Amino acid sequence: MSYRGYQGYRSYRVVALPGEGVGLEVTAAALTVLKHVARLEEFGLQIDQGLIGQSAFVAQGSYFPEATAQLCQGADAILLGAVSAGLLELRQRFDLFANLRPICPSPALLHCSSLKPELLAGVDILVVRELVGGIYFGAAGRNIDQQGDYGYHTMQYHDWQIRRIARVALEQAQSRRRLLTVAHKENALPQLPWTRLVQAEAEAFPDVTVVPMLVDNLAMQLVLRPAQFDVILAGNLFGDILSDIGGAVVGSIGLLGSASLNAAGFGLYEPIHGTAPDIAGRGIANPLGAVHSVVLMLQQWGEQAAARRILQAVAALLAQGYRTADLLTQADEKRVNTQECLELLLAELVNQ
Ligand code: IPM
Ligand code: MN
After folding, report:
1. Domain locations in the chain?
2. What's the EC number here (predicted)?
């Protein structure tokens, strides 16, 4: 699932879909970082802005308008902020089935985690979440029977859907520490045999150890002993829940970025956090989740130097004690808002 390799002058078209809430603030900051790094690393950028979510509904009567889909067609990447509606349609439209969510605590932020710092040594997890199947996309509805009104959602997976996300997770494990933990719930959901299907795909990856784990136990293990994990593979619902635990592990969900890729390596990049209506519009949101999404975008393009530059700038900023409000825990830390965080980051980019 690697992106096409570039030779000579590189140029990329990015569709920015800020969405709503803090999505507007963090996407603007992340785009500024991207433009800055493009100048420093000498590649071209075209940024097209599109509508999704509430603002799209108000302007065009749909949470994911056809005009937005057309704009995304043929782009090199989509950068999304946060939305309350329209996202599932976007993911489905481009078959973005492979959601990669790295959970890697920053050395400067160990004390921000809800876990004891000694539990974080060596923690470097990649959650691979299936993103276009399962219960979020199964038959659903509301109905009425003798007992009254009821609702239902159906968790359905074709075997090929499990097998293709398994191959992505196995490839990722192979390039990391070669351990793949598979989240499943086969004691209650035996018709969804994740273990058997992943093990069958793993025959082509003899150097990867596959460990099936009941998802309830996995959730507990993530907070008891997170260092035991390398790659975690999960279906859509379980992956959604498990990756939020990752936010507590690293100290704030505002730090985490993600990539959602299709089979051609085309992707949507978005922070894991939501629209955060409680702080939206106040200019205090943590832009680093969106910035980490840009890092994943650059890595997928093969722009490794640019990605490294951003990661080092973020590390330097955090090492100097700068923190957005979601991360403040100690008196000697320096509180910054979104704009200040961005300006510090831009200054650091040049130093790397
Ligand atoms: C996420 C979000 C979305 C999801 C919502 C907004 C549909 O929680 O990206 O984790 O459940 O996938
Ligand atoms: Mn979620």
Report:
1. 1-103+251-352, 114-248
2. 1.1.1.85
d(CA 98, CA 29): 26
Q: What angle in degrees, to the nearest 10, is found between the helix axes of 22-41 and 304-319?
A: 120
- pTM (2 decimals)? 0.96
Helix crossing, 304-319 with 338-351: angle to 10°? 120
CB of 82 sitting under 6 A from ligand 1: no
Residue 225: strand, helix, or coil: coil
Question: To which H or E segment does residue 323 belong?
Answer: strand 322-323
Return d(Cα 19, Cα 58) in angstroms, integer. 12
Q: What kind of fold does domain 114-248 have according to CATH? A: Isopropylmalate Dehydrogenase (3.40.718)
Closest CA to 167 of 213, 208, 222, 226: 208
**pLDDT tens-digit readout, 129-188:** 999 999 999 999 999 999 999 999 999 999 999 999 999 999 999 999 999 999 999 999
Residue whose Cα lies nearest atom 9 of ligand 1: it is 272
Q: Do domains 1-103+251-352 and 114-248 have the same CATH topology?
A: yes
Q: How far does the centroid of ligand 1 lie from the alpha carbon of residue 289, in Å?
A: 14
